[in-house]
Design a protein that fits this description.
Blueprint lengths: L1 H11 L2 H4 L7 E2 L10 E14 L7 E13 L2 H14 L3 E5 L2 E11 L11 E12 L1
Parallel strand pairs: 1-2
Antiparallel strand pairs: 2-3, 3-6, 4-5, 5-6
Length: 132
């Protein structure tokens, strides 16, 4: 999943974000007993498009990627969500080997109720378009 790979790279290499959430707690899969705060990244959907306008053989793909913040308080969750949005600006460049054509913010998900472990969860979707 190139979209997840690119977004994880950007988040794990953002100094402001990793000062609050260590890079090893930013992943697609985290252990159930991971210390908080933590961030999970997952692909919600993806689709391939026709070859690029230039007519080359590469396919342009578009994916919806969800970044979910797991925190110990609602205020902390909100701060981290803002840091995530700042770490993922609109852009077009190669990220960790993935030719990103665009990265844009999409929907902000619901704040989930505090769970039995005291975790506060909220998500933000991003639309990433890349060349395979």
């Amino acid at each position: 999943m190139p979209g997840v790979k690119a977004i994880r790279h950007l988040l794990a290499n953002d100094a402001a974000l990793t000062a609050v959430v260590p890079a090893d707690r930013i992943a697609s899969d985290l252990p159930q007993d991971v210390a908080l705060p933590a961030i999970t990244i997952s692909q919600v959907s993806a689709g391939a498009y026709a070859p690029t306008i230039a007519g080359d053989a590469d396919d342009v793909c578009r994916a919806r990627v969800q970044v979910t913040v797991h925190a110990t308080s609602r205020p902390s969750q909100k701060v981290i969500q803002k840091l995530v949005r700042t770490a993922l600006p609109r852009m077009r460049r190669i990220v960790n080997g993935v030719p990103v054509e665009s990265l844009i913010k999409d929907l902000i998900g619901p704040d989930l109720p505090e769970d039995v472990l005291g975790s506060f969860v909220g998500s933000q979707d991003f639309i990433i378009t890349y060349v395979e």
